[in-house]
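pls design
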């Protein structure tokens, strides 16, 4: 499968793989807002036999075939952390602000 890789200028070491060049219309809006501007970095023919240094080739191919895009985040990091509760915060019931 021919694919195109774009780097997020806002999130270091974060890449979006697309099945179509500049096919940004398939990306969910929250992801687009989170990643910010994307810069083209690579055009590649991806096959199941090709080994990728930081990503599972089969997973990338499955994502590209199913939804037209794949998100590659840095190792040991997810971009969904903003959707998770921060259990380290202290909530004061008498105040309207949350203290970190």
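designed seq:
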């Amino acid at each position: 499968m021919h694919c195109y890789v774009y780097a997020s200028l806002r999130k270091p070491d974060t890449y979006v793989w697309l099945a179509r060049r500049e096919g940004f219309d398939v990306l969910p809006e929250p992801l687009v807002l989170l990643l910010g501007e994307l810069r083209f970095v690579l055009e590649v023919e991806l096959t199941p036999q090709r080994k990728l240094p930081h990503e599972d080739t089969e997973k990338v191919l499955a994502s590209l075939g199913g939804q037209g895009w794949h998100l590659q985040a840095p190792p040991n990091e997810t971009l969904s952390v903003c959707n998770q509760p921060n259990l380290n915060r202290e909530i004061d019931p008498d105040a309207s602000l949350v203290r970190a």
